[in-house]
Specification:
Its EC number is 2.4.2.17. This protein has 282 residues and is an alpha/beta fold. It contains nine helices and 15 strands. The protein binds adenosine-5'-triphosphate, 1-O-pyrophosphono-5-O-phosphono-alpha-D-ribofuranose and magnesium ion.
């Protein structure tokens, strides 16, 4: 059995379960379920706090976990990122009231409030800044209003929470984060059951990002058409009954599909179709 940790709550919980479901795994129906066995796939899921996941995986008790890169690095656990999952994107940033400081080097003697004390202490030390760090559980934006800190360091997605608290971002992001798959440091990814899990997740990423495109084109325009739709490896070309024409089948990035269809049409392609990819192994 492959033992996998999945966020039980928070911003990563629903998208992580949705992705696992798309990869063919059973997922819980009740949010109170904390352990779920998917016997058919020989996987056991443990629904844990995202902040704790790297700790469990780092200890070697669980084979694999899904968590945020920011939480992984903050934990200091002996776990490493083995795959990016393309959701839960955020930046981790300093913010303050206008006029307090413009960059991290000006924080000397100040107090920084954060839920990510490990990350912040490391970042301050790297910049040789002697500032205090206060660890809070959440809603850290309010720490400034209540006089607990002059600076905060927190997850920023849209920036709405900061704006509403009258705070402004200081400098460049400390970190860019997203949901990642983690594994005990040094454990490698060679184990067949780990390989199979990663291939399934990779299949979901590709199925989400690409569509299948089919079209017919006169053979003399084929090279130009194929340059627009090179596919992941190489497009499939089939002869058509109608002499001088061929059918092309190729995967294209979903976000570019409409543009590519316009360009193919201009080239003389016809019967241009796109279809969603339900699942794949690349
Ligand atoms: N808008 C967001 N708010 C909070 N965390 C986000 C957001 N978008 C992505 N994330 C990521 O989710 C993880 C935070 O997990 P956490 O358990 O703190 O969830 P949460 O959404 O803050 O829930 P809660 O505060 O209820 O525990 C981090 O990796 C963070 O980068
Ligand atoms: O940039 P935004 O889109 O506004 O999102 C960022 C906010 O979301 C998170 O808060 P959360 O709802 O997790 O509450 P918490 O601070 O109590 O964890 C995070 O801590 C920020 O406050
Ligand atoms: Mg939160």
């Amino acid at each position: 059995m492959l033992r996998i940790a999945v966020p039980n709550k928070g911003a990563l919980s629903d998208p992580a379960s949705a992705m696992l479901h798309e990869a063919g795994y059973r997922q819980r129906k009740d949010r109170r379920e904390l352990v779920l066995v998917d016997a058919a796939n020989e996987v056991e899921f443990f629904f844990l706090r995202p902040r704790d996941i790297a700790v469990y995986v780092g200890s070697g008790r669980l084979d694999i976990g899904i968590t945020g890169r920011d939480l992984l690095l903050d934990s200091g656990a002996a776990a490493e990122e083995i795959m990016q999952l393309g959701f839960g994107g955020s930046t981790f940033r300093y913010a303050t009231r206008p006029g307090t400081a413009q960059e991290v080097t000006e924080f000397g003697g100040m107090t920084v409030a954060t839920s990510f004390a490990g990350l912040v202490a490391k970042h301050l030390a790297e910049h040789g800044v002697d500032a205090s760090v206060v660890r809070l559980d959440g809603a850290v934006e309010t720490a400034i209003q209540l006089g607990v800190a002059e600076i905060i360091a927190d997850v920023v997605e849209t920036g709405t929470t900061l704006r509403q608290a009258g705070l402004e971002i200081i400098g460049e992001p400390i970190l860019k984060s997203e949901a990642v798959v983690v594994r005990r440091a040094g454990a490698g990814v060679e184990e067949p059951k780990v390989q199979q899990f990663l291939r399934r997740m990779q299949g979901v990423l590709v199925a989400r990002r690409y569509v299948m495109m089919d079209y017919d084109i006169r053979a003399e325009h084929l090279e130009k058409a194929v340059a627009l739709t090179p596919g992941l490896e190489s497009p499939t070309i089939s002869p058509l009954h109608h002499e001088g024409w061929v059918a092309v089948r190729s995967m294209v990035p979903a976000v570019e599909a409409q543009q590519i269809m316009d360009e193919l049409y201009e080239l003389g392609a016809r019967a241009i179709l796109t279809t969603n990819i339900h699942a794949c192994r690349i």
